[in-house]
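Worked Example 4.2. Consider the chain below.
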Amino acid sequence: MARNESKILIIAGTGYIGSYMVKASIKLGHPTYVYSRPNSSKSELLNEFESMGAVIVNGELKDHEELVSVLKEVDVVISAVAYPQRFLPSDFGCEEDKISVLPPFQAFLDKKKKIRRAIEAANIPYTFVSANCFGAYFINYLLRPYEQREEITSQLPVLNFEEDIGIYTIKVATDPRACNRVVLYRPSTNIISQLELISLWEKKTGRTFKKIHVSEEEIVTLSKTLPDPSNIPVSILHSVFIKGVTMNFDIGENDIEASVLYPDVKFTTVDELLDIFLYNPPKPAHAAFE
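Applying the procedure from the previous section yields the following C-alpha cells:
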C-alpha cells in the first residue's frame, strides 16, 4: 500500500451521498470498505462498487461485535447514515454548531450535535464536515428540470456538486491538517441566490419561468402544521433560502475552508453544474429524515 493510502470504511455507502463517498474513495486509490445490510435492495449498486474494487461487508448497525471487528481493520470511518466513528460523523450539511433554525430542523440537528459532543468527550480523532447544500439535489428540487415546468417558486445558499463533496471528504478524512477541526465547503464560485440560479437556468435553456413568491410567514406556518417528518424539508428551505444560514457566520479560528487546503482541486461551479443538467442531468433524489 502506498504511504498516502488509508483503509476507509463507509457506513451507508449505498445511500444518496454515501455512494459519492465510495466512488471518490476508490478514485483516490484508498482500499474502500462498504458496510451494508444483508439482502440489501441496492444489489446492483453494490455489484458496481465491487467491480470498482470495493470490499462489501454485510452487517447490521445493531450488530455490535461485527461492526467493532470491521472498525479494527480500517484507518478511517465515514458515516453517511441519515442520523448520525479519525471519525467523520453524518454531518455533510449546515454547520450545526453555528446556526439557529426552525424547531423541526433544529431537533434534527440537535441529534447530530449530540454525536459531536460524544466524540469530543471520548477524545476520538475526528473531522466534522460542513458541506452545505448538495448542489444536484437542490437544483432538482428547486428548478425541476425533469418536469419541464414553466413555474418556479421563489424563495444565499452554497451549492456544491455531490461528486466534489465526495472527493473533498475523502481527502480531509486522511489529511492530518483536518484532524479535530471543522472543514467547511464554501467556495466563492458556488455562493448564489435562488433568483440568480433561476436567471442562469433561463439563459441556458432559452426559457422564461413564472416566479411564484412564497412568504416567510407561509413557510413558518407549514413548519408548524405539517406532520413529522414532512415539516423538516420546509424548515431547511427556510434556513437556507430565507435566513441564509450557510453564509451568515464567520469561519472560526480553528475551522478551515476546504479550497484553502487543496488549491489544486477545483470545485465544480454552479454554472458548470447547470451545464451538466442540460446534457446529462443527475436523477432526482429524496432525503430521508425518519
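The chain is about 40% helix and 15% strand. Residues 10 and 78 are 5 Å apart (CA to CA). Compare this with Example 4.1 before moving on.
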